[in-house]
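Revision sheet: structure tokens.
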Amino acid sequence: MFLDSIRTPSTKQRYKNLLYTFLKLIPNQLYIDSLEKKPRDREAKTLAKFFVELARTDLDVASNVIAAYIKEDKKQVEQGKISSQTIPNHIKPIKVLLDSNRIPIHWKSLNKLLPRRESKSKDRAYTREEIQKMLAVTNDITDKVIILLFSSGGFRLEAWDYFTWKDVIFFKNTDGTYKGASLLIYSGDPESYWTFITPEACKALELYRENWKADIGVYPRPDDPLIKSVRYPVIRRLNQKGVRKRIDKVVSDIGLRPSLSPDKKRHEVQLDHGFRKYFNTMLRRAKVDYLDKEDMMGHKVGLEKHYERYQEEDFERFPEYQKAIPFLTISDEERQKLKIENLEKTKEDLEKKEREIDDLKENMDKIIEEKIGKYNQKFMENLEKMYDEQILASEKRLDAMDRTFEKKLDEIDRN
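Predicted:
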């Protein structure tokens, strides 16, 4: 019931491990005291069954066990060994186990035992300089592709278990250079979404494709895994564990993951999540639209997902992503090229605008000239009309004066 209630394979494995860590801490004596029997072995399935039976038999005892577990975790937080944000993640698998088996634990009272969560985690993102060092210390094209896709796509580690070549759609300029590419995350999964990668990552991926052909003799097929393992003579996927090992070696080579002191349990930068934080930071610096940024990271944004109607096949979010390409590009040389290209494009756009303005001025001059011509013609017509009307009125007045004068003369003659 516990495993069937978890949809994502990576979450299922993580929850299973965390639950097993909790179950192993419960001594057999507790089961003997409450159930008058003990587990026949210490396997996860056996211990889960016993804990569920314990919770059904005595909710108070089960609640006390969970409370004791939370208190031990709180001590770890106080000693600085784990983050306060970690404890809820330790409790979630226990809650899933009991909820899926319809056991009504009073979680509200247990949640009050949790420490106040820190407003911000203490780990940070990789810097561009650190990622540059990673690329500098490795000559393996596989490592370069992993690093560039991680930093420019911002996806989670488990996404490497899904990628195939058909999940990448390249965008090119008219001269054949790369504009960027779209990348489908968790293909075939209900949680799938689209993100994008930089032209720099596209070049590395294209070089990796040529390297693939040199190794295998043919280019990768659409359904082939995006990155293959070199440990096997046949094509096998390099899964998330293999990717993590490669990144760990590269990051260790540049001195970013020294041995931890006894009082610390976490490094300053998370091995894989540091790339995702770098991606998020660069998109924010580029002033990318918040909802588009969250969507490119696979985050849920309230009711927005239910009402938005982006056409994913048209990749309407790519123009927003393009704002961040200069920030996400790692190589100084590539960034300089990009800067020159942007300046040239800006110059072309300005020249085009100037031509449009000149054409607009010319058209306006013609329109004004035509308007003035029509106005002058109309004015002259009105002036002639007014003149004719005044002449006619004057003639009428003269005729009236003539008639009056003749009338006066007749009166004089009669007198």
